Amino acid sequence: MHAKPVPTVLYGSRGYAAGLRDILLYSFSEPLVDVIAYVDDVAGDTGIDVDGVPVVAFDTWRDRFAALPVFVTLGDPVARRRVAERVADAGGFFSDFRDRTTSLPASCRMGRGSLVAHLVSIGRGVTFGAHTQVMPFVSIAAGCTVGDFVMVAQSATIGPGVTIEDGAWIGIGSTIVAEMPGAPVRIGRGARVSAGAVVTRSVPPECRVFGNPAVDARSAVASRRSGRR
Questions:
Q1: How large is the average pLDDT for residues 136-154?
Q2: pTM of the predicted model over 0.85
Q3: For residues 119 and 140, what is the distance between their CA atoms, to the nearest angstrom?
Q4: What is the 3-state composition of the chain as percent helix, strand, coil, each rounded to the nearest 5?
Q5: pLDDT at residue 195 is higher than 80
Q6: Distance between CA atoms of 19 and 153, rounded to whole angstroms?
Q7: How would you classify the pairing of strands 33-39 and 53-56?
Q8: Closest CA to 164 of 195, 140, 137
Q9: Cα angle at 149 between 146 and 155, to 5 degrees?
Q10: In whole numbers, what is the pLDDT of the chain averaged over residues?
Q11: Domains of the chain
């Protein structure tokens, strides 16, 4: 027996938000949402719609649609946190989604407002915070902890026991795995792992790393500049 799609308001209607909408509507074994309205801080209440669904401003959402759950589709973790806090402050609440045919181990936990997309492999004991997005083809091994407002982009691979703190961005095709088996690896709060990077050691908060093996982008740029002098 198939569950009915959840009537939901999507916050965001363009760009990355439109791509995430298509994942929710078309990429799972069945649609996960019945989109009742879109909230857009720029295009809302200008008379436009998306496939017949109205695009409204924040105040209109609060007046007409606040009884429905919201899913924040913004990709940037900082913007997603700001919007989620604004919605919560206005009395809103949130949906979270995963493919109903994907079996998460019973030991896994998933926070409100989060998404685990289709074709994702999740190990035992993985926990996800609130408003975190895990995109298709991601692999997360057993015992990992993923915080709030994290983005794990397509085809990323995360080895056992890794901790990803709040607001981190894990880029497309990146790999995070301990250099030595059993050694802790922590991706700090607000850190960004660039696409294709291979991370084998902990990354400090707010640091951006790239390459194989991954290095601090700011240090690499400073080193190159000093070498030219």
A1: 96
A2: yes
A3: 12
A4: 20, 25, 55
A5: yes
A6: 13
A7: parallel
A8: 140
A9: 60
A10: 91
A11: 6-89 (3.40.50.20), 101-209 (2.160.10.10)
